């Protein structure tokens, strides 16, 4: 089977990796002429981390990951703190 995936963001790359591991032929389409760092951080939820670990990417993630100590919410308009949720050791 041949699979076509549009977009080489984290979702497209993970889908491509998974399809290749399953033995599919894959064409990955991306409009950018080159892939490079954008300077943005990516927060991956626990479910997303489980998926990426299941397809063998945990060592690569662990090599570059920064683990948050808390989740802080603030108002976009005022910058006022709304809530802070400490994250336990299980999240690190």
TL;DR?
The protein has helices at residues 10-21, 46-54, 58-64, and strands at residues 2-6, 25-29, 70-74, 81-86. The longest helix is centred in the first third of the chain and has 12 residues, at 10-21. The strands form two sheets. It has a two-stranded parallel sheet with strand order 1-2. Strands 3-4 form a two-stranded antiparallel sheet.
Q: What are the key terms here?
A:
alpha+beta; 30% helix; 92 residues; 4 strands; two-stranded parallel sheet; two-stranded antiparallel sheet; 3 helices; single chain
Low-confidence stretches: none
Question: If strands are numbered along the chain, what order do they take across the biggest sheet?
Answer: 1-2
Biggest sheet architecture: 2 strands, parallel
Percentage of residues in strands: 15-25%
Number of helices: 3
Helix-strand category:
alpha+beta
**End-to-end CA span:** 39 Å
- Rg computed from alpha carbons, rounded to a whole number of angstroms: 17 Å
State the total count of DSSP E strands. Answer: 4
Level of helix content? 25-40%
Can you walk me through this structure?
It is a single chain. The protein is of the alpha+beta class and 92 residues long. It has one domain (2-32, 44-87). The chain is built from 3 helices and 4 strands. Strands 1-2 form a two-stranded parallel ribbon. Strands 3-4 form a two-stranded antiparallel ribbon. The chain is extended, with a radius of gyration of 17 Å. The chain starts with a strand and ends in a 6-residue tail after the last strand. The relative contact order is 0.13.
């Amino acid at each position: 089977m041949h699979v076509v995936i549009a977009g080489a963001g984290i979702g497209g790359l993970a889908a491509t990796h998974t399809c290749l591991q399953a033995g599919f032929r894959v064409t990955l389409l991306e409009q950018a002429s080159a892939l490079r760092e954008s300077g943005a951080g990516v927060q991956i939820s626990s479910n997303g981390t489980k998926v990426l670990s299941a397809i063998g990417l945990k060592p690569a993630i662990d090599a570059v990951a920064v683990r948050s100590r808390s989740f802080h919410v603030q108002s976009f308009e005022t910058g006022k703190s709304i809530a802070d949720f400490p994250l336990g050791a299980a999240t690190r």
